[in-house]
């Protein structure tokens, strides 16, 4: 989890045999794990889905956070709507920094307006969760609907959540 200051600073400037992407895609593949979080070689958050379908905690949390804050406009499970685009594609097609910037600062595209969420702790404190969930959806590593199995939340993740939420 990145704290709000890191996210806003950025705003200023593994598949386990699943999905349509190659297992060795450097934008997806888990290179290392740290306290229940998974990262690519370049330190970008990514998801982990075990062979039995168990998802990492951030992916599960991302499902919950996405559905509490994002799905009203972007549709269930990141599929998009007539009102806003499919975010499951954005998490795969955009860079991590561009994703953070867009969520924090918002975006206007003609008549379409994405509001800024940089002040919303329910989004900023869980931005990595939302990102990895959408990345997992965008690669079809996670099916539509609530993931059936999840890893336990690590103490480090719980401490970071508490610190971010205040």
UniProtKB/TrEMBL annotation:
SUPFAM superfamilies (alphabetical): Cytochrome c (SSF46626)
Protein name (database record): Methanol metabolism-related c-type cytochrome
Signal sequence annotation: 1-22
Record flagged with keyword ATP-binding: no
Entry's Gene Ontology molecular function annotations: electron transfer activity; heme binding; metal ion binding
Keywords: Heme, Iron, Metal-binding, Signal
Keyword Repeat (UniProt): no
Organism: Yoonia sediminilitoris
Pfam families, per the entry: Cytochrome_CBB3
Record domain Cytochrome c: where: 61-125
